[in-house]
Amino acid sequence: MSINFAQIVHYISSNYLISFILSFLLGALFSYLVILGKQKKEDIDKRKLESYVKGINYIIENETDKAIKELTETAKIDPDMVDIYVSIGNLFRKKGEINRALIIHKSLLARPNLDKNKKLDIYLNVGIDYRKAGLYDRAKKYFKDALSLAPKNQLAKKLLYEVYEDSKDWENALVWHKRFDGTDKNVLSHLYTELGKEKLREGKTDEAKKNFEKAIKEHKECFDAIVNLGDIYFNYGNLEKAYKLWYKACKMRPELCNIALSRIKDDGILKEHTTRLLEDMPNDEFINFFAAESFLKIGEKNKAKSLLKRLLKKGLKSNSIIKRLMKIDENAPDYVKLFAQNISKSPVKYTCTNCGYSSGKLFFRCPKCKSWDKLKVSIE
Q1: 171 and 94 within one domain
Q2: pTM of the predicted model, to two decimals?
């Protein structure tokens, strides 16, 4: 069969057209799939963003359960969002569900190809989880892991220093405080003082003395160090030096002078020091109140009564003062004396000005917020 030139041209043209149409359709299909994928991605991104924003709003509103739910939904939409999982773990920790926080945070470490910053963040959060659980040794390990990734990271240093404080490892707390900051002389003085008290409990008096002296060198008005150094001199038999230090502590912080005065067991010396304090600081309400306490202790009720009445006239409202006056008054009815017998052992309240924690027991480091020397004293 013969094919003429016209037929050949027609055949080639037909096949070229089919190829062109087929290529066009494939290109259109590809473009459609790209657009569809982009649209789907945009939908996912939109849902992810909406869920994430809701979660953040719930965090701001302190609605932890709703925040966890929304951020969990966000994480389901995009399982690779490590930051979201970290946030969910943090929220569980905030709720006190430390085990769940640890499960989430530690599981993230198993993910491949984590970049350095994300891994650092996870190490820090696992350490914080363990610290919150009171597992200080494990917390230290993860903070050290964080520092192995970023040796200059200040947050890791700060957290490690704080966890050494929490565990009352004062030597290492000193080391890491100096690495983290070292400029806060007041905190350094407290750390040296705590180390000194630890050495004193161990019977290492000379080492204790050196640490108290270092504390005073760092911060010359470290009340706790001065009082404890007075204890050492008293035990050495150097009573004059001990009394001098305790008197200095009273003048330096009148609101704490009962801590120093309570160490004086000799009634004559106690009366002498109390009288001097009243002469030096006659208008200080704490000096007046604790002087009254001292006079009651040595049996000089009239002097105590005079001081307590003076405080009431000055407008100091205190149940402790009224109860003491009732107890002193020999002509008071029996029911009044019975009421007065219920005098609190701690007429003073110590409050942290940083977080509001209050106690009848003296503290220099707040048990709640862990801040040093944020102390307000009030007569109850």
Answers
A1: yes
A2: 0.77
Dist CA 92 CA 101 (whole Å):
5
In single-letter form, the type of residue at position 372 comes to W
d(CA 205, CA 235): 10
Residue 365: strand, helix, or coil? strand
Q: What is the dihedral of CA 108, 110, 112, 117, to 10 degrees?
A: 50
Does 320 reside within a domain? yes
Q: Kindly report, residue by residue over 263-307, the tens digit of the pLDDT.
A: 999 999 999 999 999 999 999 999 999 999 999 999 999 999 999
- Output the domain CATH number for residue 207: 1.25.40.10
CATH number, domain of 302, equals 1.25.40
Distances (CA, A) of 1 to 4, 6, 20: 10, 14, 29
- What is the 3 state secondary structure string of 115-180? CHHHHHHHHHHHHHHHHHCCCHHHHHHHHHHHHHHCCCCHHHHHHHHHHHHHCCCHHHHHHHHHHH
Task: Let me know whether 93 and 139 are in one domain.
Answer: yes
CA quadruple 356, 357, 358, 362: dihedral sign: negative
Residues in the chain, how many?
380
**Residues 347, 274: Cα–Cα separation, whole Å:** 18
Residue in the structure block whose two tokens are 């109850």: 380
The parent domain of residue 315 ranges over 264-343
Decide if 65 is inside a domain: no
Structural domain contains residue 21: no
